[in-house]
Amino acid sequence: MKLALSVTSKYKPVIFILLLSLLSACGGSNNSSDRADDASNSTLSPQAALGEQIFKDQNLSASGKMSCASCHNPDHAHAQTNTLAVQFGGARLDVAGFRAVPSLRYLNLTPAFYFSKEGTPTGGFTHDGRADTLSIQAARPFLAPHEMANKDKAEVITKLLSRPYASAFRAVYGTNIFSNAEDAFDRVLFSLQQYQLEDPEFHPYDSKYDQFLAGKISLSDAEMRGLALFNNPQKGNCAACHTSSKAKDGSSPLFTDLTFDNLGVPRNYAIPATLDANYFDLGLCGPDRLDLSDRVDLCGKFKVPTLRNVATRKVFFHNGRFDNLRDVLGFYVRRDTNPEEWYPIAANGQVLQFNDLPSAYASNVNTKEVPYNRKRGMSAALSKEEIEDVIQFLGTLNDGYRAK
């Protein structure tokens, strides 16, 4: 079972979302970089300390109100704080995005994108894996019209020059670093990468489940039942892609195998782009990723994310179609047994299954693995009671657990 993270199970009017976005943007974040000369984490390298300040600095955006932390809030597992399917950016915070915000937690061990010996696409950053490093991934938000919306790299550097930490930037990267905007921008991205790699807040491995694996605590009966269902290849089969056991070297599980899958997630009409009937987000084969556009067999596949902190997420899947775990798990196990629950129904009574894909790519949807191998009239792989147990287990994956 593949839980793709990231809004509502019922469609919301786009106009309402546009108005809401003007008020909330990405959920907000303190503009703590105004106090940036005082690094908040003394354990970080100078480069990473700069990255933390850049990460939280709203002044590096066209609006002056958006930072990396606005959409990747540290207090919310570095994910969004609202229930919008997509966030809004631009100079007036009124330009809609196209995909739900992924969490930035547990990305430090992600490899560059590659195809395995079996031909399986694996690794990379973002929903379509097109960025090979955290540094490369960090570039787009600064320049994307629907995010921080700077016109070019030079504009980012001009803004940075006026920030309190500009002198620290020179001290770390050289007196003349600002003479070349391209080089300075590269150092900005490197700083952000080092911050995410070095700060343990991005990968603490301190959930209840981690402490259970270490033999320090026990799980409740419901959590243990949920774990068993999660691992059972004939029930949830979640562990097939969201590894739940320690690696051979004893390292903690990431709860993702870093591959890609097509789950046939319903179209989310809360995303303004979907008002165009010809618009489709096809993941690995476009529209954002261009190098695999001829691989039609990959169309509709998106990255399998970690399930750590999944119970804290506000939205799920690449298009934010669902806003709660109960519906997400219900979709997994009843997608094919009861498709009318999840997809629109045409005037002739036909269920428009897999309606967020052109019909030519419907065969790419995963219909072979448990729990997706069911047919109409069959029982779902999990009952409602079993779904509740799995939800209890998923709650043990939240960071920062403290035993009472």
Give an account of the 3D structure.
This protein has about 400 residues and is mainly α. It is about 25% helix and about 5% strand. The protein has helices spanning about 15-25, 45-55, 70, 135, 140-145, 155-160, 165-175, 180-200, 210-215, 220-230, 325-335, 385-395; strands at about 90, 95, 115, 120, 260, 300-305. A hairpin with a 5-residue loop joins strand 3 (about 115) and strand 4. Helix 11 (about 325-335) packs across helix 12 (about 385-395). The longest helix is centred in the middle third of the chain and has 18 residues, at about 180-200. Mean pLDDT is about 90; it is low at about 5-25 and about 25-40.
Structure, briefly:
By secondary structure, the protein is mostly helical.
Quick tags:
404 residues, two-stranded antiparallel ribbon, globular
Distance between the termini: 32 Å
What does the largest sheet look like?
Answer: 2 strands, antiparallel
Number of strands: 6
Helix content: 25-40%
Strand coverage percent: under 5%
Gross geometry: globular
Global structural class? mainly alpha
The side-by-side strand order for the widest beta sheet comes to 1-2
Mean of all residue-level pLDDT scores: 92
Q: What Rg, in angstroms, do the CA atoms define? A: 21 Å
Element string (H = helix, E = strand): HHHEEEEHHHHHHHEEHH
Task: Quickly count the helices.
Answer: 12
- The unreliable regions are 4-25, 27-39
